[in-house]
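Student: I would love a firmer grasp of how sequence relates to backbone shape in proteins. I am handing you a single protein, as its sequence and its fold in token form. I am told such tokens are a discrete way to write the fold. I hope you can help me see how the letters and the tokens relate. Take your time, and here it is.
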Amino acid sequence: MTHDKPASPPALTLPPPRPVPARFLRDYLRTTEVAELLGLSPRTLEKYRCVGEGPAFLKLGQRVLYARSDVEAWLQAHRCAHTSDDTYTSVVDARRARRREP
């Protein structure tokens, strides 16, 4: 009597990592590049610039640039471990307060 081993599930293969576009490796990024990187629309970043919510930016004539380090710092400042985190609740409360403003 032979005991056949149960078939093991096929090994999970992940697709190869996509290369990071070179434009995202520069020290300064344009609005559209930051928007793509953050998963936001460029218009949202424009609004953030008006109300002081987004990452720090540079205004050179009509061009707006973001230092990569400022974008990364802004992301880290919004890092939360859970929805009860002080950072999370302060952001939510600030948004609610702005919506109530006339």
In short: Residues 86-100 form the longest helix (15 residues).
